[in-house]
Design goal:
By secondary structure, this protein is an alpha+beta fold. The protein has 17 helices and 24 strands. The chain is globular and about 75 Å long.
Amino acid sequence: MKDLITFVYEYIRKEALLPAERVVIGVSAGADSMALLYVLANICKKYYPDTDLLAAHLNHGIRGEEADRDEELVRSCCETLGIPLSVRKLDIPAISKEKKTSLETQGRLERYAFFAELCEESDSRIAVAHHMDDQAESIVMHIFRGCGMEGLLGMQSRNGAVIRPFLNVRKSEILEFCKDNSIPYREDSTNADPAYARNFWRNEIFPRIDRGVHMSPVEALNGLSSRIREENDYLEEVAGQAVPEVLKDEGAEVDKLLTLPRPILRRVLRILAVNAFGDVVDMESCHWDAVMEILDPSGPARSLDLPRGRKACVEHGILRFALDETEEKQKASGYVPGVGACVCDRDTSEVLPLTALPIGKIVNFSQSFVRIRLLSIEKEDEVVYNDTTWFFPESILGKAVLRTRREGDTLKRAGSSVTKELRRFMTEVQFPVRFRDRVLLVMEDEKTLWFPGFAHAVGFTDPLSREKYGNDKGEKLYKLEILPQSVEEGGL
């Protein structure tokens, strides 16, 4: 094999993973991500000098002091390489219990949400260290869950903003690279726990196959993925073209769905579910089969419970994907954590200028459960960042209004030269369709200034965006907050 850095660079070029304005590198302290940090630092310095690198480390709150030592190692290596680091600590066990998901699933969701928040530019990438062995494990786990063709594809070298520069590299080659270059890393103790399905395949089944038939299951499964990719891409394209033909009233006409060939129908259902929920985490083959079973345009109303408090409903010949009734009531309005945005309880045409907000007073937008507060920043220690706070200069105050989305709204993210339809941006970030016309925005005419939890065009929402795009030129600063129901007027 060629030198790993050269090999990965050639793969990056072949798959068109770079260049980009910023690359957020997910770094856990394990061998894979530490090697990726060093490899991308080398490649970007030599071949992509205009690309900003940012390391991101999520402490899951699972392994106590061991996790703290992981963070210390990542911080030390980033200082050595001169790469800025952003760290977040969460209690994943508590969150997964609340959301009724597995630790693995919730950890993955929170990790990618964190990485996405750090992508300020429209041309950003999120680099993760998945390799060929990870790919093989994913594929075989998909098979035993009852996947279709799309499950056999495993992970892609690029999926939206996420790139996987190591997807053509074996784990053994990564470990050899770390050893040869004295790259420090830490072993995650949970990697040896057979209670995790991936560890069972990795540590027990794959080695037995390798020894028993003298053939690498990793090579075989990766080869399978490569061979069927073209066929799947074609079917996905056909399904995408079919979706507009079946849509009606935020749902899909059952009689039109039933005219589709089963392989296309399955893919159309998946697209509809992603549009409704933002993801299809934990949805397996049995769930898609069950959805197809309730498709009857002339029968009585039927509903089907799906994972994570979701439902598929058929009524009056229309299929809709929706949250469970209880979940829907809980997440009908206000700040919706699972979505990461602020949603009004109904469609509204109200427009509220920011200048109409009394400084320091909590206001309910459109008499809904969306609670907002405008504050004047008097001291630097009042600049405290979170997902629902936007800081902006005084010159914006007289131009900005609060309202919900309208047709024709646009977004030009801070630092980007590209203006796109807000509707298109929502599709790109998989923002649930059911919330798109009720989401609260800060606007100047048709231009989006702040899409809470997702993007901003002016001002800043975190230390990095302040450094790069704050541009307050000495102006007085204000902050606009979206507040949870527990916050009262006197508290911060």
